[in-house]
Write a structure and sequence with these properties.
about 200 residues; alpha+beta; OB fold (Dihydrolipoamide Acetyltransferase, E2P); DNA polymerase, domain 1; 2 domains; five-stranded antiparallel beta sheet; globular
Length: about 200
Amino acid sequence: MIGSLAGVIAAKEPPRLLLEVQGVGYEVEVPMSTYLGLPPAGSQVRLRIHHVLREDASLLFGFATEVERELFRALLKVNSVGPKVALAILSGVSVEAFRAAVALDDVAGLTRIPGVGRKTAERLVVEMRGYFKDAPHLPGSPAVAQAPRAEALHALQALGYKPPEAQRMLEKVAREGATTEELIRAALQAAAPQERA
């Protein structure tokens, strides 16, 4: 099985890229989170790979970070989530925002991701809770070093709120020592009455 590839980006067309490794071109599908961070065509890049072998195809999925690849693999274990839906999830929200949505039982937020229906969102919330419990610190995640407020802001934006709106929501509920999840929960609860009005 292929675990990683290092080579030159020969072509980019989301969500695929053609990675040339020692004269061989590999077609790799990547989530938008990885795609947007890629250098231009002609540049060297190393991707972590998840390799799927089928009777009719050999598929390669590439990720910029180990955290993304591990989450992708965990998502594939959820009933009715295949590679396409898993890629859509990683393209629609950051790992941190997805974790927050699962922790907060935010089924409605997850259904905003293209390709994720209500039943799938409910299944994700139930089945992924254990995954994050076992990996509470998400080692290697760039957001680990961020302050809870910055993480909460990022998560709210990933859930569909515009940056100024997310900022205002957090200003209303910000308090010293609050965790990321507490800030997100408080911001969403404060916003709920206004959205119903």
